[in-house]
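In response to reviewer comment 3 from the previous cycle, which asked for concrete evidence that the modeling workflow produces usable outputs, we include below a single protein chain processed end to end. The sequence was submitted unchanged, and the resulting C-alpha coordinates are shown without manual editing.
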Amino acid sequence: MSGGRPDLSIIIPAYNEAARIVATLKTLAGFLDSRSYGIVEVVIVVADSPDGTAQLATAQKHLFKHFKLVEPGIRVGKGRDVRAGMFEASGRYKLFMDADLATPLTHLDDVHAFMRQDGQVAIAVRDLFVVHKSLVRKLMSKAANLAAQILATPGIKDTQCGFKVFEAGVADALFSRMTMLQWSFDMELLAIARQLGYKIQTIEVPDWSDPKEHDDGLAGDSIIKVALTGFLDPFSIRMGIWTGRYRHAHYRHQEG
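The workflow returned the following C-alpha coordinates.
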Protein backbone atom coordinates (compact mmCIF):
# COMPACT_ATOMS: atom_id res chain seq x y z
CA MET A 1 0.00 0.00 0.00
CA SER A 2 1.01 3.65 -0.37
CA GLY A 3 2.96 5.73 2.20
CA GLY A 4 1.40 8.95 3.43
CA ARG A 5 -1.62 9.13 1.17
CA PRO A 6 -4.72 7.31 2.42
CA ASP A 7 -5.52 4.15 0.55
CA LEU A 8 -9.24 4.56 1.20
CA SER A 9 -11.39 7.54 2.10
CA ILE A 10 -14.77 6.73 3.64
CA ILE A 11 -17.21 9.61 3.14
CA ILE A 12 -20.35 9.71 5.27
CA PRO A 13 -23.02 12.36 4.58
CA ALA A 14 -24.64 13.02 7.94
CA TYR A 15 -27.44 15.58 7.82
CA ASN A 16 -29.48 15.48 11.06
CA GLU A 17 -27.84 12.24 12.21
CA ALA A 18 -27.33 13.14 15.90
CA ALA A 19 -29.32 10.10 16.99
CA ARG A 20 -26.87 7.64 15.41
CA ILE A 21 -23.59 9.33 14.42
CA VAL A 22 -21.72 8.53 17.64
CA ALA A 23 -22.66 4.85 17.56
CA THR A 24 -21.87 4.71 13.84
CA LEU A 25 -18.38 6.15 14.25
CA LYS A 26 -17.60 3.90 17.22
CA THR A 27 -18.78 0.86 15.26
CA LEU A 28 -16.77 1.93 12.21
CA ALA A 29 -13.62 2.53 14.27
CA GLY A 30 -13.89 -0.88 15.90
CA PHE A 31 -14.41 -2.56 12.56
CA LEU A 32 -11.47 -0.81 10.92
CA ASP A 33 -9.24 -1.82 13.83
CA SER A 34 -10.06 -5.45 12.99
CA ARG A 35 -9.01 -5.11 9.35
CA SER A 36 -5.88 -4.25 7.37
CA TYR A 37 -7.04 -1.97 4.59
CA GLY A 38 -3.97 0.26 4.67
CA ILE A 39 -4.35 3.92 5.59
CA VAL A 40 -8.04 4.83 5.95
CA GLU A 41 -9.39 8.36 6.13
CA VAL A 42 -12.88 9.11 7.47
CA VAL A 43 -14.67 12.18 6.10
CA ILE A 44 -17.93 13.27 7.71
CA VAL A 45 -20.02 15.77 5.75
CA VAL A 46 -22.60 17.71 7.73
CA ALA A 47 -24.83 20.30 6.07
CA ASP A 48 -26.22 22.82 8.55
CA SER A 49 -27.96 20.47 10.99
CA PRO A 50 -29.93 21.94 13.89
CA ASP A 51 -29.39 18.81 15.98
CA GLY A 52 -25.65 19.15 16.68
CA THR A 53 -24.47 16.34 14.41
CA ALA A 54 -21.23 18.15 13.56
CA GLN A 55 -20.22 18.60 17.19
CA LEU A 56 -21.03 14.99 18.05
CA ALA A 57 -19.02 13.73 15.08
CA THR A 58 -16.03 15.92 15.91
CA ALA A 59 -16.01 14.57 19.47
CA GLN A 60 -15.27 11.12 18.03
CA LYS A 61 -12.32 12.13 15.85
CA HIS A 62 -9.86 10.63 18.33
CA LEU A 63 -11.07 7.20 17.18
CA PHE A 64 -9.38 7.65 13.80
CA LYS A 65 -5.84 8.48 12.70
CA HIS A 66 -7.19 10.40 9.72
CA PHE A 67 -10.44 12.31 10.20
CA LYS A 68 -12.05 15.31 8.49
CA LEU A 69 -15.28 17.17 9.13
CA VAL A 70 -16.68 18.99 6.10
CA GLU A 71 -19.45 21.56 6.59
CA PRO A 72 -20.71 22.63 3.15
CA GLY A 73 -23.33 25.09 4.43
CA ILE A 74 -27.10 25.15 4.17
CA ARG A 75 -28.83 21.95 3.21
CA VAL A 76 -29.08 21.46 -0.55
CA GLY A 77 -29.20 17.70 -0.93
CA LYS A 78 -27.33 14.47 -0.42
CA GLY A 79 -25.65 14.74 -3.80
CA ARG A 80 -24.07 18.10 -2.93
CA ASP A 81 -22.84 16.73 0.38
CA VAL A 82 -21.32 13.60 -1.13
CA ARG A 83 -19.61 15.70 -3.80
CA ALA A 84 -18.18 18.01 -1.14
CA GLY A 85 -16.78 15.00 0.70
CA MET A 86 -15.33 13.52 -2.47
CA PHE A 87 -13.40 16.67 -3.25
CA GLU A 88 -12.11 17.03 0.32
CA ALA A 89 -11.06 13.37 0.54
CA SER A 90 -7.52 12.43 -0.44
CA GLY A 91 -7.60 8.63 -0.73
CA ARG A 92 -6.57 6.55 -3.72
CA TYR A 93 -10.11 5.20 -3.54
CA LYS A 94 -13.15 7.06 -2.28
CA LEU A 95 -16.22 5.38 -0.89
CA PHE A 96 -19.42 7.00 0.27
CA MET A 97 -21.78 5.21 2.60
CA ASP A 98 -24.83 6.08 4.68
CA ALA A 99 -24.60 6.99 8.35
CA ASP A 100 -27.22 4.41 9.32
CA LEU A 101 -24.94 1.50 8.30
CA ALA A 102 -27.77 -0.07 6.30
CA THR A 103 -25.05 -1.78 4.25
CA PRO A 104 -23.15 -3.92 6.77
CA LEU A 105 -19.52 -2.95 7.26
CA THR A 106 -18.39 -6.44 6.29
CA HIS A 107 -18.88 -5.31 2.68
CA LEU A 108 -15.83 -3.12 3.12
CA ASP A 109 -13.99 -6.41 2.53
CA ASP A 110 -15.54 -6.40 -0.96
CA VAL A 111 -14.35 -2.83 -1.42
CA HIS A 112 -10.82 -3.82 -0.40
CA ALA A 113 -10.83 -6.68 -2.90
CA PHE A 114 -12.07 -4.29 -5.59
CA MET A 115 -9.23 -1.88 -4.77
CA ARG A 116 -6.65 -4.65 -5.06
CA GLN A 117 -8.00 -5.38 -8.54
CA ASP A 118 -7.43 -1.71 -9.55
CA GLY A 119 -11.14 -1.30 -10.23
CA GLN A 120 -12.76 1.92 -11.39
CA VAL A 121 -16.32 1.99 -10.00
CA ALA A 122 -18.12 -0.46 -7.71
CA ILE A 123 -21.68 -0.15 -6.41
CA ALA A 124 -23.72 -2.09 -3.89
CA VAL A 125 -26.96 -3.54 -5.24
CA ARG A 126 -30.03 -4.83 -3.40
CA ASP A 127 -33.34 -6.52 -4.12
CA LEU A 128 -35.51 -3.40 -4.12
CA PHE A 129 -38.78 -5.18 -3.49
CA VAL A 130 -37.43 -6.94 -0.43
CA VAL A 131 -35.36 -4.30 1.35
CA HIS A 132 -37.98 -1.59 1.98
CA LYS A 133 -40.53 -2.08 4.74
CA SER A 134 -43.55 -0.19 3.45
CA LEU A 135 -45.47 -1.06 0.29
CA VAL A 136 -45.28 2.58 -0.80
CA ARG A 137 -41.47 2.59 -0.60
CA LYS A 138 -41.32 -0.75 -2.43
CA LEU A 139 -43.48 0.53 -5.29
CA MET A 140 -41.70 3.88 -5.39
CA SER A 141 -38.29 2.23 -5.63
CA LYS A 142 -39.40 -0.19 -8.33
CA ALA A 143 -41.03 2.56 -10.42
CA ALA A 144 -37.99 4.82 -10.17
CA ASN A 145 -35.69 1.93 -11.02
CA LEU A 146 -37.79 1.03 -14.05
CA ALA A 147 -37.47 4.60 -15.33
CA ALA A 148 -33.73 4.47 -14.69
CA GLN A 149 -33.41 1.14 -16.49
CA ILE A 150 -35.18 2.44 -19.57
CA LEU A 151 -33.71 5.93 -19.80
CA ALA A 152 -30.49 6.35 -17.83
CA THR A 153 -28.72 3.21 -16.64
CA PRO A 154 -29.94 0.09 -18.48
CA GLY A 155 -28.66 -3.12 -16.97
CA ILE A 156 -28.03 -1.71 -13.48
CA LYS A 157 -30.67 -3.15 -11.18
CA ASP A 158 -30.09 -0.75 -8.27
CA THR A 159 -28.72 2.76 -8.76
CA GLN A 160 -29.63 4.20 -5.36
CA CYS A 161 -27.89 2.11 -2.71
CA GLY A 162 -25.80 4.44 -0.54
CA PHE A 163 -22.57 2.45 -0.81
CA LYS A 164 -20.38 3.23 -3.84
CA VAL A 165 -16.62 3.37 -4.33
CA PHE A 166 -14.54 5.11 -6.99
CA GLU A 167 -10.88 5.27 -7.93
CA ALA A 168 -9.80 8.83 -7.15
CA GLY A 169 -9.26 9.96 -10.74
CA VAL A 170 -12.58 8.45 -11.77
CA ALA A 171 -14.29 10.19 -8.84
CA ASP A 172 -12.90 13.52 -10.00
CA ALA A 173 -14.10 12.96 -13.57
CA LEU A 174 -17.59 11.93 -12.48
CA PHE A 175 -18.30 14.34 -9.64
CA SER A 176 -16.99 17.32 -11.62
CA ARG A 177 -19.62 16.56 -14.28
CA MET A 178 -22.48 15.84 -11.89
CA THR A 179 -25.35 18.33 -12.00
CA MET A 180 -27.97 16.70 -9.75
CA LEU A 181 -27.46 17.59 -6.09
CA GLN A 182 -30.33 15.72 -4.47
CA TRP A 183 -31.64 12.14 -4.56
CA SER A 184 -30.89 11.20 -8.18
CA PHE A 185 -27.19 12.03 -8.13
CA ASP A 186 -26.24 8.31 -7.92
CA MET A 187 -28.15 7.56 -11.09
CA GLU A 188 -26.55 10.49 -12.89
CA LEU A 189 -23.04 9.47 -11.79
CA LEU A 190 -23.53 5.97 -13.16
CA ALA A 191 -24.90 7.31 -16.45
CA ILE A 192 -21.85 9.57 -16.75
CA ALA A 193 -19.55 6.65 -15.91
CA ARG A 194 -21.14 4.66 -18.70
CA GLN A 195 -20.75 7.54 -21.15
CA LEU A 196 -17.07 7.98 -20.24
CA GLY A 197 -16.42 4.26 -20.64
CA TYR A 198 -15.63 3.32 -17.04
CA LYS A 199 -16.24 -0.23 -15.90
CA ILE A 200 -18.94 -0.53 -13.22
CA GLN A 201 -18.69 -3.55 -10.94
CA THR A 202 -21.36 -4.63 -8.47
CA ILE A 203 -21.27 -5.72 -4.84
CA GLU A 204 -24.28 -7.88 -3.95
CA VAL A 205 -25.76 -6.90 -0.58
CA PRO A 206 -28.46 -9.43 0.34
CA ASP A 207 -28.09 -8.43 4.01
CA TRP A 208 -28.92 -4.73 3.52
CA SER A 209 -31.30 -3.60 6.23
CA ASP A 210 -32.89 -0.19 6.74
CA PRO A 211 -32.90 0.74 10.45
CA LYS A 212 -35.06 3.80 9.86
CA GLU A 213 -38.81 3.90 10.08
CA HIS A 214 -40.98 4.53 7.00
CA ASP A 215 -39.79 7.74 5.29
CA ASP A 216 -37.32 8.78 8.02
CA GLY A 217 -34.59 7.78 5.60
CA LEU A 218 -35.63 10.60 3.27
CA ALA A 219 -34.01 13.26 5.52
CA GLY A 220 -37.17 15.30 5.84
CA ASP A 221 -38.22 15.27 2.18
CA SER A 222 -41.74 14.12 1.44
CA ILE A 223 -42.18 10.72 -0.13
CA ILE A 224 -44.11 12.39 -2.98
CA LYS A 225 -41.20 14.72 -3.78
CA VAL A 226 -38.72 11.85 -3.80
CA ALA A 227 -41.02 9.75 -5.96
CA LEU A 228 -41.44 12.54 -8.51
CA THR A 229 -37.73 13.24 -8.77
CA GLY A 230 -36.99 9.52 -9.02
CA PHE A 231 -39.37 9.24 -11.95
CA LEU A 232 -38.61 12.52 -13.77
CA ASP A 233 -34.83 12.78 -13.34
CA PRO A 234 -34.05 9.83 -15.65
CA PHE A 235 -35.62 11.87 -18.47
CA SER A 236 -33.30 14.78 -17.62
CA ILE A 237 -30.29 12.47 -17.55
CA ARG A 238 -31.18 11.01 -20.93
CA MET A 239 -31.55 14.54 -22.33
CA GLY A 240 -28.16 15.42 -20.85
CA ILE A 241 -26.58 12.48 -22.65
CA TRP A 242 -28.21 13.49 -25.94
CA THR A 243 -27.19 17.14 -25.64
CA GLY A 244 -23.62 16.55 -24.47
CA ARG A 245 -24.12 17.95 -20.96
CA TYR A 246 -21.54 15.54 -19.54
CA ARG A 247 -18.72 16.06 -22.01
CA HIS A 248 -16.97 18.60 -19.80
CA ALA A 249 -16.62 19.36 -16.10
CA HIS A 250 -19.10 21.79 -14.54
CA TYR A 251 -17.59 21.94 -11.08
CA ARG A 252 -14.10 21.96 -9.65
CA HIS A 253 -13.15 22.00 -5.98
CA GLN A 254 -11.44 25.26 -5.13
CA GLU A 255 -8.36 24.58 -3.01
CA GLY A 256 -7.83 26.76 0.01
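The chain has a mean pLDDT of 88. We consider this sufficient to address the reviewer's concern, and the full set will be provided in the supplementary archive.
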